[in-house]
Amino acid sequence: MRVTILGNNSALPAFGRNPTAQVVSVYGEHILIDCGEGTQVQMQKHGVKWSKLNYIFISHLHGDHYFGLPGLINSMSLLGRQADLHLYAPAPLMPMLQQMLDWADTVLTYKLHFHPLPDGAELLVETDNFKVSCFPVEHRITCHGFLVESKTRGRKLLPAQCRDYEIPRYYYDKLKQGEDYIRKDGTVIPNDWLTTEGPDAKKYAFCADTLFTDSFIQYIQGADTIYHETTYLHNDVEKAKARYHSTPVQAAEVAKMANAKQLLIGHFSSKYRELAPFREEAMTVFPNTLVAIEGNSYDV
Amino acid sequence: MRVTILGNNSALPAFGRNPTAQVVSVYGEHILIDCGEGTQVQMQKHGVKWSKLNYIFISHLHGDHYFGLPGLINSMSLLGRQADLHLYAPAPLMPMLQQMLDWADTVLTYKLHFHPLPDGAELLVETDNFKVSCFPVEHRITCHGFLVESKTRGRKLLPAQCRDYEIPRYYYDKLKQGEDYIRKDGTVIPNDWLTTEGPDAKKYAFCADTLFTDSFIQYIQGADTIYHETTYLHNDVEKAKARYHSTPVQAAEVAKMANAKQLLIGHFSSKYRELAPFREEAMTVFPNTLVAIEGNSYDV
Predict the structure, then answer these.
(1) Distance from B221 to chain A by nearest Cα, in Å?
(2) Distance (Å) of CA B35 to CA A231, A232, A278, B128, B165
(3) Is-catalytic flag, A64?
(4) B108 touches chain A (CB under 8 A)
(5) Nearest-CA neighbor of B148 among B251, B257, B3, B14?
(6) Coil, strand, or helix at residue B76?
């Protein structure tokens, strides 16, 4: 599982930085979290294929987290998308999107499934490859974080060995589950001749826009990577609190409380040109911190 | 009067080209016509000062002409704009913008005056420097073109000469109107020692998205510069017609019928990487044709 940053800035675009949008990729499938203005162009620029995107999640209704959504939805239709698209977002968004489509006399070429976000924490979707749940964070308006969990696919087949030992295809699923193969003559082919360890299940917690709080730690406990906003540096901690935002030290405290392995920080205020101080501050509390840079992908 | 192109592409962003937005500058004041996604970033990039922008006009409710508007309106407020802003747009847009502000719990720092566009042709606004009127064009949904007319400011004062001849300030307005100055002793200081010819009144006609028609020629007759869309080249003339768009030859016919001095073409389909053929086609009918290139400014 990895996450590609399409926008790392807060409200105002500045210094070439874009508003929030990021793509979580699981077994080749893309999940878009938030969709600030310009996301469709950022996806093109950074080579994120729309054909692999079937799920979009919107954390809250501040414009820097969704103003790119109408454009993306329209453009997919202009390109003739056929596959269903699932949108998980605050409830009022769908009537507005539908209104915009109606004004434009547009009928989408694909089916857009709208799933309004619940009030609290809830499992939203589960597929063969991943599941995504939401949890409440504390912002000026209703806002959700998202937890993306990839599933293990069991052990990974070694195709050449499976062919060499003439393992029948119907047995592959059992190999993935770790079973040995036993020939009709009783010979045992040990599983570890035929498979290697598969990828671990991973947990990525996107904590959206939030003030510093331990109220959602329960939902992100043990995440491999936590993304936490750091709008202001710590000398502006009072401003951060007043505006329901956080500082790097606070994000690092969250990562520490949640026993995360890695912390990714973003959503930087337009007042800061330099981002290195954000990492330095966070590392005083949580050393394994990375700054979310647009176009970069991070292993979860 | 000059026009700066912020976006010259049709619906889908492509080849680094953005959706429709352009700024008409009259005596240092900016008028924004259409506001596709990314317009606020394009304005920053091309040095168009927001403080000089007080009027926005939206031609119709296809997303590539207004999806950048919520972001621009919000960002102006985040930067603490105080001056009133006037928006002329299709009627349903204002409740939607208000809804977005309400969801975000945002109160703008400035007053946004919303003026719904009328059905037909009408004078929308008149200031000391310019007037703007709208006229109906023929598109798949209701769509307006805009005519921007700058006013003459009379003759232009030569400050050094006015000082040398000790012309009192209260007389400057009369100088602009072409009057000579007569001293108490009866000496006549001829006007052309004190002034030069001022800028002419100019007419810029933005014809929005439209199929080829002579139905609006009456409103743009004698324009100095006409902007006309050319979404497709002429070998796609049937497709253009079916989609309520035009070709370069058709745009050139319009410019010719309207006795325009100059034609500016834009709104290119994403299927075309090269834009030179658009100009070549138009020039066969109307030689003084220019291709609208993003970031370029054109004298009207």
Answers:
(1) 29
(2) 28, 30, 34, 25, 49
(3) yes
(4) no
(5) B3
(6) helix
Q: Kindly report the nearest CA distance between residue A43 and chain B, in angstroms.
A: 11
Q: Which of A44, A60, A75 is most worth mutating to test chain B (most B CB atoms within 10 A of its CB)?
A: A75
pLDDT digits (tens, 9 = 90+) for A185-221: 999 999 999 999 988 899 999 999 999 999 999 999 9
Which class for A190: exposed (0-12), middle (13-18), buried (19 or more C-beta within 10 A)? exposed
Across the interface, of A37, A68, A103, the residue whose CB is closest to B92 is: A103
In a shared domain, residues B175 and B29: no
| Cβ of residue B34 closer than 8 Å to a chain A Cβ | no
Is the pLDDT at A73 greater than 90? The verdict is yes
- A148 and A123: one domain? yes
Co-location of B28 and B145 in the same domain = yes
Chain B positions in Cβ-Cβ contact with residue A92 (cut-off 8 Å): 99, 103
Q: Is A40 on the interface with B (CB under 8 A)?
A: yes
Which residues 167-196 in chain B show a CB within 8 A of chain A? none
Instruction: From chain A, pick out residues whose CB is under 8 angstroms from the CB of B78.
Output: 11-12
Considering the domain architecture, whether residues A126 and A59 belong to the same structural domain is answered as: yes
- Is the domain of A190 the same as that of A288? no
Per-residue burial over B146-158, b = 16 or more CB atoms within 10 Å of its CB, e = otherwise: bbbbbbeebbebb
Distance between CA A73 and CA A31 in Å, rounded?
Answer: 14
Cβ distance B13 to A67 less than 8 Å, yes or no, reads no
- What pLDDT, on the 0 to 100 scale, is given for residue A12? 87
Q: What is the pTM of this model?
A: 0.90
Which segments of chain B have a pLDDT < 50?
A: none
Task: Please state whether beta strands A262-266 and A289-291 pair in parallel, antiparallel, or not at all (unpaired).
Answer: parallel
Query: A79 falls in which pLDDT band (50, 70, 90)?
Result: very high
Our count of domains for chain B comes to 2
Q: For position B40, what pLDDT does the model report?
A: 96
- Report DSSP state, residue A272: -
Q: Is A7 on the interface with B (CB under 8 A)?
A: no
> Does the distance separating the beta carbons of B96 and A96 come in below 8 Å?
yes
Q: Name the residue in chain A with its Cα closest to that of B19.
A: A71
Q: What is the pLDDT of residues A283-298, one digit of tens each?
A: 999 999 999 999 999 9
Of B142, B168, B196, the domain-final residue: B196
Contact state of A62 with B90 under an 8 Å Cβ cutoff: no
Cβ of B40 and A74 within 8 Å? no
In terms of Cβ atoms closer than 10 Å to its own Cβ (0-12, 13-18, 19+), residue A26 is: buried
Taking the CB of residue B291, how many other CB atoms lie within 10 A of it?
Answer: 20
pLDDT digits (tens, 9 = 90+) for B67-112: 999 999 999 999 999 999 999 999 999 999 999 999 999 999 999 9
Which one, of A205, A194, A190, A203, lies nearest residue A152 by Cα?
Answer: A203
Q: Would you place residue A154 in the very low, low, confident or very high pLDDT band (cuts 50, 70, 90)?
A: confident
Q: For residue B192, what are the domain limits?
A: 156-196
Q: Which of B166, B181, B196 is the last residue of a domain?
A: B196
Strands B289-291 and B262-266, sheet pairing? parallel
Chain A 88-107, residues with CB within 8 Å of chain B CB atoms = 90, 92, 96, 99-100, 103-105
The residue of chain A with its CA nearest to that of B14 is: A41
